[in-house]
Amino acid sequence: QSALTQPASVSGSPGQSITISCTGTSSDVGGYNYVSWYQQHPGKAPKLMIYDVSNRPSGVSNRFSGSKSGNTASLTISGLQAEDEANYYCRSHTNRSSLGVFGGGTKLTVL
Amino acid sequence: EVQLVESGGGLVQPGESLTLSCAASGFFFRSNWMSWVRQAPGKGLEWVANIKQDGSEKYYVDSVKGRFTISRDNAKNSLYLQMNSLRAEDTATYYCARDLPTLGGAFDQWGQGTLVSVSS
Predict the structure, then answer these.
(1) pLDDT digit string (tens) for B82-103?
(2) What residue of B is the nearest CA neighbor of A98?
(3) Hey, what's the torsion of the CAs at A74, A79, A84, A88, to 10 degrees?
């Protein structure tokens, strides 16, 4: 069982907005502003989309945004596009381990 | 262009050893923490180990402590993962990843991965 809880799947139509949640505890998500999000297409390596809760790396579309409230972090994708269909993973720093913890992943389907 | 290229994966029997390598290029390798992250078939991501820029600090997930050793050769721009006493549950694609230079520890560059299969 993953340390961070994500919904197994979410879906949306092209042009819509969706939000993926990532729920942890005060030992990880709630205690630090160190949540990152990764996009992974089948058979490909993960790609960093958001770091430190809400920062976008250079080259990542501004349709992707991150936020946090309490022990839950969220990734919002606006203006959904077909190429956004992928698995998304959150990751957080934790005080329970020298290494961070990942969420179980969320499969995004663009209808 | 930043590139991370893993090699060394393959099929081994339980109890055997394997060493993975990651060749880095396109950035100042010795400036970054580096990590190994794995993904079992059809499963999620798991941070396996990371290593400080000069190799003086190393951290491991509990399930590999005492069996895996992470190392680096900054002169060769290379990262390694020595894996001993391999188990079936170590079967996964292993990714080499560059740690973003922030306290948060995000991975901003990934290799294409190398598959390790442990089976009799």
Answers:
(1) 999 999 999 999 999 999 988 7
(2) B59
(3) 0
